Amino acid sequence: MNSIKEKLKDSNYRITGQRAAILEVMMDNRGKHLSAEEVLYKAREKMPNIGMATVYRTLDKLASIEVLYKTMFDEGRYRYELCDEGMHQHHHIICLGCGNITEMEDDLLTILEQKIESKGYEIIDHDLKFYAYCPECRYNK
Amino acid sequence: MNSIKEKLKDSNYRITGQRAAILEVMMDNRGKHLSAEEVLYKAREKMPNIGMATVYRTLDKLASIEVLYKTMFDEGRYRYELCDEGMHQHHHIICLGCGNITEMEDDLLTILEQKIESKGYEIIDHDLKFYAYCPECRYNK
DNA sequence: CTATTATTGATAATCATTATCAGTTTCCTA
DNA sequence: TAGGAAACTGATAATGATTATCAATAATAG
């Protein structure tokens, strides 16, 4: 939580009411993957006049200083989640039935990364998604 | 190559001039990841009047019978590539410098998948991307 | 307190993709 | 082989998410 404030200060980023509201929304929804539209509606509960342009701008800004993580889950729109510490090695499981996204921690990819780096690449990040049926949807198929 | 024709027949899929052109484009560009727009322009070299709606329709149809593979690389648009045999276990390395996408074969994910399945999930597919600097871009940074 | 600068919301613009629809082609069957 | 049902096409309009524009407002440094 501290480290978020540090990141904000480090990037001479003016903390306004709307930005605080958006940050609050993201912190209230730790672990969830919200679309810009979802953030807009939730933020309007705290600040009714907030506009969608502000939401997009703020989310992108927060992603650029690594307070948020911005990903596209093959559905044609971006989703945002709060960057936790230890967030580096986390993967997503997307349920093909209900669409829910859950996370798993793991660190098995280092072997693969070493393989790639031995070919001269410098790896910055990775992104691993599993498409699956969750226990419930599997049962109801 | 045969298996493509089989897939087409199996899905009572009418093979027209435009579809042949699009398939040709994809086969000429084996291993590349083309956007719909790129396919359109390349297909127009073979058939000048082909329309973009046809390209989208055909690409999606080919993806649905697993002749093509449709993915989104975090840039807001879909890309298509020919499904090779043994395509199942292949991952993408996206260069953050030049944007080139290369592939690697591997099979280390089965361990992870077993872990997830032991929790009751049924895994259908996965998608692993590495964001990196390729040897050349790394050198010129 | 005031000038500079960043931020905001409304709106229009953009970009990729999808839907619509009338005209055309293909295929099946009589 | 003709004729009709069904699939396919291209042009165009519509959609949905995101980005750009711009005048008005708010925050900050001096």
If you compute it from the alpha carbons, what radius of gyration of chain A comes out, rounded to the nearest whole angstrom? 17 Å
CATH homologous superfamily caption of the largest domain in chain A:
Winged helix-like DNA-binding domain superfamily/Winged helix DNA-binding domain
Report the average pLDDT across residues of chain A: 86
Kindly give the count of domains of chain A: 2
User: How many H/I helical runs of chain A?
Assistant: 6
- Going across the major beta sheet of chain A, what is the strand order? 1-3-2
How does the overall form of chain A come out from the CA principal axes? flat
Element layout with pairings:
The structure is a homodimer of 141-residue chains.
Chain A: H1 2-10, H2 17-28, E1 34-35, H3 36-46, H4 52-64, E2 68-72, E3 78-82, E4 90-95, E5 101-105, H5 109-117, E6 122-133, H6 135-139
Parallel strand pairs in A: 4-6
Antiparallel strand pairs in A: 1-3, 2-3, 4-5
The first copy, chain A, binds a DNA duplex (30 and 30 nucleotides) through residues 14, 16, 18-19, 35-37, 49-54, 56-57, 76-78.
Structure description:
The structure is a homodimer of 141-residue chains. The first copy, chain A, has 141 residues and is of the alpha+beta class. The first copy, chain A, has 2 domains: 81 residues, Arc Repressor Mutant, subunit A (Orthogonal Bundle); 51 residues, Dna Ligase, domain 1 (2-Layer Sandwich), CATH 3.30.1490.190. The first copy, chain A, is built from 6 helices and 6 strands. In chain A, the strands form 2 sheets. In chain A, strands 1-3-2 form a 3-stranded antiparallel β-sheet. Chain A has a 3-stranded mixed β-sheet with strand order 5-4-6. In chain A, a hairpin with a 5-residue loop joins β4 and β5. The N and C termini of chain A lie far apart (41 Å). In chain A, 23% of the residues are buried. The model of chain A has no long low-confidence stretch (mean pLDDT 86). At the A-B interface, α5 and β6 of A face α5 and β6 of B. β6 of chain A pairs antiparallel with β6 of chain B, so a sheet runs across the interface. Chain A binds a DNA duplex (30 and 30 nucleotides) through α4.
